[in-house]
Fold (S)-3-amino-2-methylpropionate transaminase.
Amino acid sequence: METLREPKIITELPGPKSQELLKVREENVPTGVSNSVPVYVKRGEGALFEDVDGNVFLDFAGGIGVLNIGYSHPEVVEAVKEQSEKFFHTSINVVLYEQYPRLAEKLNHLIPGDFRKKTMLVNSGAEAVENAIKLARKYTKRTEIIAFTGAFHGRTLLTMTLTSKIKPYKWEFGPFAPGVHRMTFPYCYRCPHGLERETCNLHCGKQFESFFLETVDPEDVAAIILEPMQGEGGFVLPPDEYIKTLRKICDQYGILLIADEVQSSYGRTGRMFATEYWAELGVYPDIVTTAKSIAGGLPISTVTARAEIMEASHIGGIGGTYGGNPLAAAAALKVIEVMERDCIAEKSLRIGEICMNRFEEMKEKYEIIGDIRGRGSMVALELVKNRETKEAAKDETSKVVQECWRNGLVVLSAGARGNVLRFLMPLVITEHQLNIGIDILEKAIATVNNQLFANQEA
């Protein structure tokens, strides 16, 4: 079988076989299960995949951040094969198996914090967040939770409540879960207070004073939950001083700090965990949730917390039938082993460096690029119709996404305004492949940029 090296489009898109499968989908799958690219994957390798018609795409979406280790990593494939020949499932709540505590042991060691930790395994990012909230409430004997504007934490009832964006995630799905209060996130490019980062004196951090007077009593708050870098919110990174302020507030009022690392973990930001940057500030979360790239695509997620928080639950209070499935746990152990051995986090830093340098050059040429931001390889471009007004270029962002996939590159949009291009390429991508992808991206941006400003001039 031919090795996948570069994108290659050999048919119309979608190709005839994908078109036939799209008909099957239309007849049998609800439209609410959305998709960005109307092609069907046949096989994947590294940072590329081949569709059923023989077209090859470079993947800058990575299964929404799941494929940090790439498609079909041979060592992970072998680990899953080996486990599958022994047993698929027992349920940790009935019969024990080694992979569960071994993975918990590994995460307790890796996740920042020089204190005793314990880890539970579940199935998805949303399920991890649900359990983090459960544990925070159980431990503190409090009910209220603070989340943020721009947040994404999942699509279950509780996590949908924690999530900020209305469409498509919350629209007409209410009423929502009680006890959740929303604080303004420090989105410095679009400061909700109309201030500049250099001179604001961390105004957003001071808003907690009035928030606790007018919205919720801090003595009732069990936890504050946030993403170290917002994912669906548009890769928004809060200032370091804001993170330090949150920790001080939590310590002052006995509130737990939850870091939702579902998207930012396993090398994506240039560290194994984004909260390692917090640790450099002397800040440690009380609870950390992870998922996505932990097992290379098999469904598993984790909740790691201070041991005393985990032990607050009574026997049987946490767990689930499939939680920490043996196949997924075996895959996760191998993924982490490979990531550590092959210095995946360091590769992420190099990917980010190349992207940011190219993006800075692009910003000089294309007026549509309003902001460039990121950490490690978790990088994004925010597109605007006017750099002064920062009017969101939502339709233009969609056009860039479409133009990219027609030329063999899969990218995703994000942000409350739908005007952010976010990049989650597999961290095993070669520099040659990375630059090919950025070349395709730049051509797409140039095309849309020229159309936008030609129309404005006309």
